[in-house]
Structure formats: structure tokens, C-alpha cells
């Protein structure tokens, strides 16, 4: 089978449809200039690319924070930064990595990839998609503006009350944190709805549920998780913590009947699923990579899909294991310990399925594949220490020590960074039309693999040795100097790996080998169009006849014709079997998503200082809403006047 | 090597205006109903969680909420439902005249909701947000639901203006139907919260 697949042909983007393609080119053409066209674009690929780039910028900035922290801890009694600055550095590092990188970069990748993978022209709501990006950008800039003006949040990325409350955290640092969280949650929720509807209603004809690519399944599961997890932290930060600080509500004030532990419940009800929201898309990437580079369909597809669902479901039953050091009832501890151990089962099942796929396939050890294998090693180590700290007695011993820091960095770097780098090497040719350098890629991988282990493995030992997290320095007598120095050395290796990656991206974008539509001979629909894809992705619409459409289509790709080309029309299909149901017209470029995001920005940034910002922001948003939705009469033939339906007969 | 394309179906005859779950905008509305609905559930959970910190609820020296405006609110909300359902049916028949009337009535109803909510907050609750955690919880639940009322007022008033003033196309009638779907969530979703905020303090 693999011989046939290796020679899999690609689709001629023009074929017999040259006249329609010419009209689509006019339909999707923007009269705006280059910059204004970029600002007003609603193309999911354009939004996706800027989203990815923005996330990586925040990743680098947050990584610089980590670099300073590692330099500070490289030896005892170091004084590169003082305790106040150190508090801001680790808080912004964690906040940015979680809220501005790990979760949104997966959203960003999905924004670019999912419409291509399901064979449609756009996401479900293109303007909402653009709005989500601008909101995210404003929130991220606000966080770093806070840090660089010495108003950076300083109470940790989970901002526990009462430390973050008005009594112990004067000034505006925590308010900045609370509103940044709100920005990112709005962006995340918007993207989640986009993805759910795109996946349920816009799949190519024939892509029934049992033919959806595993990466798309992972995004669907994560999107549902976002819908039920993020309201918790958005409510807790904006409507409770910020209000306690701004207008003296008493949600977390024990003296007036409030409860600081309520914050922990609300935060971790979001915070624990958040971990899975980060790495489940990574699991999807690993499936895509392994399938592509072993030339074999993923082993036990139904098990993989069920495992994603079980992981997503059980993730909501684990939040209290972050609170074992608080007075949680004994029965609750046992329940959450059991659930925490249970989560290892679906993840383990997926790892066995991947290994079986590699075993039965013909693996090609490209950079992308190497990162997928690196993921299995690093993530498994992180998962095993997770099972250890699911046990209450052990957790109480290592709570708030560097053991925890080591654990979650193995999980996050293993579960997010390794698959993400692998996905970058896999999809860079699709996004840019050029190949990345495999030589630089191998350097990138090995430096990263070594760097991650050299940095974070010693932290297990430091934690067992009693070193608490979030200390800006330590005494020489503690004996933590050597292991900290090794960890700092590892951080330097990680930095060099990321530098190699960035250099690879820049040099390959400028002068990499031309990729062609399907350089890897991969099976998914995203490889059925040109690289980079045209603004309309596909024309005509591809039709799916199996789970690996390009491997199964042979010499001819089945397509569905008849979508209008004089407007941005997309096909809507039924949710279960993807049977064509109706045609839907998408809107064109618009500046209103940016205007709406600015209105939201004024609201939440202003609310750091005054509650009246909500009134002003609401009024601005109402105006933006009007501009967004007001009909422009683009299709006079479709207009309804009193008693006259222009196309009722046709209907 | 280039792959050829083989046409296996023609999409030309598919409708381009549909209603309800067939419409992609309906699904977006459902998504936001889930998000906002779950946020309200969490607000209610906070309310219930905080009751355990008090021996009496409302706490001592805090008055029970009065019921005049809240009951009026419930009645007005329930009375609006037949009106918006009638509007939805008119939209499905592309009856421009009736839709205009229905949207105008819906806007008036929504303005009444917002006005009554202001009275509920400022008068009926008999407690300020900064009095104690009970007051904070009450303002949280009513305030969260008030944002739904305010946003919906912008939407329905905007839609009314569109239908009276703008070049309306057939697809906009489907938006009216989706608005009614959200309206049902907003009004019926308030009923258990009304019980929680205004009746349950009398029972606990």
C-alpha cells in the first residue's frame, strides 16, 4: 500500500474550472491597500498566521522572563533581580505561557488548519474569528505593558486569594492580571464556538463522524472543554476578584462571609481542564504526524476518538487535586485521587495505539516525526510524575516544591511544545509553499530534547530536596546550587534550540525548496489544494469517500460542483453524516471586528481603574455591533419589500 | 503528477435560506447559549456555596428581598414569549409587515426587562453589593443575567431598525428566528434564578 501512497498525485488547482477560478479571484479580491487589506482581512488563513506569529512572540517574551529567572537561580544568593521583580517575572511567565501561548497557539493552528482539513472554504464566522484575534492581541500587549511599566502581576499565575485580594495586593498589578485573563477567555470562547460549528456543519460531503481526522476530533473535544471551563475563570476574575478589588464586593473576604477557597475551586475548575485543553490538540498533531510518516492509518481509530472524549470528560473531575493541601473532605480527596489516576488510562491507550501504528508502518524519521517521538518520551515522564502526585500523601510532601515545577513543565513542554514543533515542520510547507531545512530541524530537535531534560529533570531532585517554588534566591547551605546551575545550563540549550527554529523558519520562508501541494504524500484534504492555498481553499468542494481521502481517491478526486463563485458561498452539511444541506454566504473584509475589539479593550482596560468603563465600553460596543451587522444591500435581487419575495418561487 | 477531479454531485439546487438547526447562525447562537447558560449556572453555584458561611440567609440585619418588581418581571417575561414566537412564525413566512411589528414589540418588552432589572437591583434586593457576601452574591446573579438583557436589547433594537430602515434580504428573516431562540433561553433561563434569588432566601 505504501508504494501507491508515496506516488499519490495532487490536484490540479485549475483543471476544467478556469472561468470559475477567475471569478472567485475577483470575488475574494480586496480593493483595500496592502496594510488596510491585512487589517480588515477575515480569511482564516491570514488570521491564523498572524495568530500563530503573535503567540510565538509572546512565547519568546515569556521565555525571556524564564531566562532571567534561571540566571537568577544559577547560584545561591544571586542579586540579578530582587524579590519584587522576581515575583512579576514568574507570574507573567506563567500567565503568558498559559493564556497567551500554550492554549491560543493551538487555537491559532486550528484556525488555519481545521477548515482545510474538513474541506471547506472558511471558518463558520469569519468576522468573529478576526474579532477573537484582535481581542487576544490587545490582552497580550496589556500584560507585557504592565510588566515593563513595573505593574506586572505578582501573585502567581493562579492569583490565589486572599493574597491577590485588596487587603494584600495593593496597586493595580492584580487588576491587570484579572483583565488580561478576561481578554484571553473571550478570544478562546469565540474560537471554540467557531471550531464547533465549523466541524459540525461545514465538513466536506461524505466526511461522516467516523471519517473525521483525529486532529479535528481533538479540536472538537477541546472546543467543548473551553465552552465549559473558561466561563469559570472569566467569571471569577472579572465579576468577582476584580469587583472585590474595584467596588468592594466580598466574594473572597472572610470577614463579610466570603470565602478565599471559593477562588481556588473556580480557578481550578477551569485550570485543570486548561492543561488538557493545551495538550489534547498536541495529541491530534501527533496522530497526524505519525499517520503521515508511517504511511499507515492510525491503529484503532475508534479507541483514539473515545480516548480523546474520555480525557476531556474526566478532566473536569480532577480540579481538587490542586487543592490537596487545603481542608478538602477525606472522601473528596479519595475521589479526586482516583480520577487523577484514571486519566492515565485513555492517554496510555493512545500512546499504545501510536506505538502500534509505528510498529506496523514504515516510519520515516523526519524532524516532524522526531518531535512526535520526543513527545512520547517527555510527555510520558510528565504523566508518570502526575500519577505520583495524584496520591495525597506524596502530594503533601512535594506541594509547592520544584517537583511540581518539574512535573508540569514535562507535561506542558512534552504535550504542547514537542507536538507543536512537529506540526510546524509538517504544515510549514502548506502555509508558506516552502520546505523547512531538515538539517536545522534535527539540530532544533536534539537541542530541545536535551535542553528540556537537562533543565527540568534536576528540578525533580530539587523538589524532593525541599526547594520551594517561587523563591527568588536561596542560601548556599541548602545545597541546591549545583542542580540549579545544571538547570540553567539546560535553559541555555533550550534557548539555542528555539533560536535554530526561528532561523529555520526565516531562512526557509525566504529560500526553502518549493513544496508543492502534498510534499509528504499525506492523506488529509488539506493536502488536496495548493501550497499555500488560495483564499477560497477549494474549488470545487472535495467529496470524501473514506478516512484517508487522498490515499483512497486514486487518480481522480471526487468533487461537488455548483457553489456560487460571484459571492463567498460555503456549503453547509448535516452534523452527523455530512450530507449537503444548504448554501450559506460568508461576509467579506471588514474593519468592524477590530473596532469591536477596541471597544472591548477600552472596557476591560478602563475597568482596571473605574467601573464606569463598563458603561462607556458597552456604548462603544453597541455602536460597533451596529456597524458590524447593518446590511449593505449587496444583493438587490434578494431584497424583500412589502409583500414581495424575490425568489420565493425558486425556493 | 496531477490528480483529476470527478464531479459526483451538484450543489446548485440546495437552498440558501434555511431556518433553525439547519442554519449555521443558529448553531452559533446555541454555542453562546451554552457559554452564557453555564456562566449563570456557575453564578448560582457561587450563590449556594456562600450560603454555607452564614447561619441565616440573608445574614442578620439584612432585609429579605421584596417581591413586587421581581414578580412583575417574571410575568412580563412570560408574556413576551407568545409575542416572539408569533414573530418567529412570521419570519418563517417572510412576512415583512408582521416581523416589523413583532420586533418593535420585542424591543419594548426588552426595554421593560432592563428597566425592571434596574428596579430589582436598586430597590427590590434591599442590599448593596458591598454590604456582605450575601449582597455580593445577589448582585452577581442578577448582574450576570442583566448583561444578557442589555446585550439582547442592543441586538433586538438593532434588528428592528434594520427591518424598518435597511435593505432587508431573505436571509435576515432567519436571523429573526435565531433571535427568538436566544430570547427563550434568556427569559426561561431567568425562572430558576428568580426562585434562587428572590424566593429561596425566604425558605432557607
What does the model show?
The complex is a heterodimer of chains A (about 650) and B (about 200). Chain A has helices at about 1-5, 20-25, 35-40, 45-75, 85-115, 125-150, 175-200, 215-245, 260-295, 300-315, 330-340, 345-360, 365-390, 390-400, 400-430, 440-465, 480-510, 550, 590-605, 610-630; strands at about 10, 540, 555-560, 570-575, 580-585. Chain A is mostly helical. In chain A, the strands form two sheets. In chain A, strands 2-3 form a two-stranded antiparallel ribbon. A two-stranded antiparallel sheet of chain A has the order 4-5. Chain B has about 200 residues and is mainly alpha-helical. The longest helix of chain B has about 35 residues, at about 135-165. The N and C termini of chain B lie far apart (about 75 Å). The model of chain B has no long low-confidence stretch (mean pLDDT about 95). Classes of the chains: A mainly alpha (about 650), B mainly alpha (about 200). Chains A and B meet through strand 1, helix 7, helix 8, helix 9 and strand 3 of A and strand 1, helix 1, helix 4 and helix 5 of B. Strand 1 of chain A pairs parallel with strand 1 (about 1-10) of chain B, so a sheet runs across the interface.
Amino acid at each position: 500500500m505504501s508504494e501507491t501512497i508515496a506516488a499519490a498525485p495532487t490536484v490540479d488547482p485549475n483543471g476544467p474550472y478556469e472561468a470559475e477560478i477567475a471569478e472567485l479571484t475577483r470575488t475574494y479580491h480586496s480593493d483595500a491597500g496592502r496594510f488596510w487589506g491585512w487589517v480588515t482581512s477575515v480569511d482564516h488563513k491570514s488570521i491564523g498566521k498572524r495568530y500563530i506569529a503573535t503567540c510565538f512572540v509572546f512565547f519568546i517574551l515569556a521565555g525571556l522572563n524564564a531566562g532571567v529567572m534561571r540566571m537568577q537561580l544559577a547560584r545561591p544568593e544571586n542579586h540579578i533581580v530582587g524579590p519584587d521583580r522576581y515575583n512579576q517575572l514568574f507570574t507573567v511567565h506563567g500567565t503568558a505561557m498559559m493564556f497567551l501561548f500554550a492554549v491560543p497557539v493551538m487555537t491559532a493552528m486550528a484556525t488555519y488548519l481545521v477548515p482545510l482539513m474538513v474541506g471547506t472554504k472558511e471558518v463558520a464566522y469569519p468576522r468573529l474569528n478576526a474579532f477573537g484575534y484582535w481581542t487576544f492581541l490587545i490582552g497580550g500587549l496589556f500584560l507585557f505593558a504592565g510588566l515593563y511599566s513595573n505593574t506586572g502581576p505578582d501573585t502567581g499565575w493562579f492569583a490565589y486569594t486572599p493574597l491577590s485580594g485588596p487587603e494584600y495586593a495593593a496597586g493595580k498589578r492584580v487588576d491587570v492580571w484579572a483583565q488580561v485573563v478576561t481578554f484571553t477567555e473571550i478570544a478562546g470562547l469565540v474560537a471554540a464556538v467557531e471550531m464547533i460549528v465549523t466541524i459540525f456543519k461545514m465538513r466536506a460531503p461524505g466526511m461522516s463522524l467516523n471519517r473525521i481526522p483525529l486532529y479535528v476530533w481533538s479540536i472538537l473535544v477541546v472546543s467543548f472543554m473551553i465552552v465549559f471551563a473558561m466561563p469559570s475563570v472569566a467569571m471569577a476574575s472579572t465579576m468577582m476578584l476584580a469587583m472585590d478589588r474595584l467596588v468592594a464586593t466580598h466574594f473572597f473576604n472572610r470577614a463579610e462571609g466570603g470565602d478565599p477557597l471559593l477562588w481556588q475551586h473556580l480557578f481550578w475548575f477551569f485550570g485543570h481542564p486548561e492543561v488538557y485543553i493545551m495538550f489534547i490538540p498536541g495529541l491530534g498533531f501527533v496522530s497526524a504526524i505519525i499517520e503521515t510518516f508511517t504511511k499507515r492509518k492510525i491503529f484503532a481509530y475508534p479507541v483514539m476518538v473515545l480516548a480523546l472524549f474520555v480525557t476531556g470528560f474526566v478532566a473536569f473531575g480532577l480540579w481538587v487535586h490542586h487543592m490537596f493541601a487545603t481542608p478538602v473532605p477525606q472522601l473528596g480527596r479519595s475521589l479526586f485521587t482516583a480520577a487523577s489516576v484514571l486519566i492515565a488510562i485513555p492517554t496510555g491507550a493512545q500512546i499504545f495505539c501510536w506505538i502500534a501504528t509505528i510498529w506496523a508502518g514504515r516510519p520515516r524519521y523526519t524532524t516532524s516525526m522526531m518531535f512526535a517521538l520526543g513527545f512520547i518520551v517527555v510527555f510520558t515522564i510528565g504523566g508518570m510524575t502526575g500519577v505520583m502526585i495524584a496520591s495525597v500523601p506524596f502530594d503533601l510532601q512535594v506541594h509547592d516544591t520544584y517537583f511540581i515545577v518539574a512535573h508540569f513543565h514535562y507535561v506542558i513542554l512534552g504535550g504542547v511544545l514537542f507536538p507543536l514543533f512537529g506540526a510546524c515542520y509538517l504544515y510549514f510547507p502548506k502555509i508558506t509553499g516552502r520546505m523547512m531545512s531538515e538539517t536545522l530541524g534535527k539540530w532544533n530537535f536534539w537541542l530541545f530534547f536535551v535542553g528540556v531534560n537537562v533543565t527540568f529533570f534536576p528540578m525533580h531532585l530539587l523538589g524532593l530536596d525541599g526547594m520551594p517554588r517561587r523563591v527568588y534566591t536561596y542560601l548556599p547551605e541548602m545545597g541546591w546550587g549545583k542542580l540549579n546551575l545544571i538547570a540553567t545550563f539546560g535553559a541555555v540549550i533550550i534557548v539555542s534550540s528555539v533560536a535554530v527554529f526561528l532561523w529555520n523558519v526565516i531562512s526557509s520562508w525566504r529560500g526553502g525548496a518549493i513544496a508543492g501541494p502534498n510534499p509528504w504524500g499525506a492523506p488529509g484534504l488539506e493536502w488536496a489544494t495548493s501550497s499555500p492555498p488560495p483564499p477560497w481553499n477549494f474549488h470545487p468542494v472535495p467529496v470524501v469517500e473514506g478516512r484517508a481521502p487522498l490515499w483512497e481517491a486514486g487518480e481522480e478526486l471526487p468533487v461537488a460542483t455548483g457553489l456560487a463563485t460571484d459571492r463567498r458561498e460555503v456549503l453547509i452539511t448535516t452534523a452527523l453524516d455530512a450530507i449537503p444541506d444548504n448554501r450559506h454566504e460568508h461576509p467579506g473584509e471588514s474593519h468592524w471586528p477590530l473596532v469591536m475589539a477596541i471597544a472591548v479593550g477600552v472596557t476591560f482596560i478602563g475597568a482596571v481603574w473605574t467601573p464606569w468603563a463598563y458603561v462607556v465600553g458597552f456604548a462603544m460596543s453597541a455602536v460597533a455591533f451596529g456597524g458590524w451587522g447593518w446590511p449593505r444591500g449587496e444583493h438587490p435581487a434578494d431584497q424583500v419589500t412589502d409583500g414581495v419575495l424575490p425568489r420565493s418561487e425558486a425556493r | 503528477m496531477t490528480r483529476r477531479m470527478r464531479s459526483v454531485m451538484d450543489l446548485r439546487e440546495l437552498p440558501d435560506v434555511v431556518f433553525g438547526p439547519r442554519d449555521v447562525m443558529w448553531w452559533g447562537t446555541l454555542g453562546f447559549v451554552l457559554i452564557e447558560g453555564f456562566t449563570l449556572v456557575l453564578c448560582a453555584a457561587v450563590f449556594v456555596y456562600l450560603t454555607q458561611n452564614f447561619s441565616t440567609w440573608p445574614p442578620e440585619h439584612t432585609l429579605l428581598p421584596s417581591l413586587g418588581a421581581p414578580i412583575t418581571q417574571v410575568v412580563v417575561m412570560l408574556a413576551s414569549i407568545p409575542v416572539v414566537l408569533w414573530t418567529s412564525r412570521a419570519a418563517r413566512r417572510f412576512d415583512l409587515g408582521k416581523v416589523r411589528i413583532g420586533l418593535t414589540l420585542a424591543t419594548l418588552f426588552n426595554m421593560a426587562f432592563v428597566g425592571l432589572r434596574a428596579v430589582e437591583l436598586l430597590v427590590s434586593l434591599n442590599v448593596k453589593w458591598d454590604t456582605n457576601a450575601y449582597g455580593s452574591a445577589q448582585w452577581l446573579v442578577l448582574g450576570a443575567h442583566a448583561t444578557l438583557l442589555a446585550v439582547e436589547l442592543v441586538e433586538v433594537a438593532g434588528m428592528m431598525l434594520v427591518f424598518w430602515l435597511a435593505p432587508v434580504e431573505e436571509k435576515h428573516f432567519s436571523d429573526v428566528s435565531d433571535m427568538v431562540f436566544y430570547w427563550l433561553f434568556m427569559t426561561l433561563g431567568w425562572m430558576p434564578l428568580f426562585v434562587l434569588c428572590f424566593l429561596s432566601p425566604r425558605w432557607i
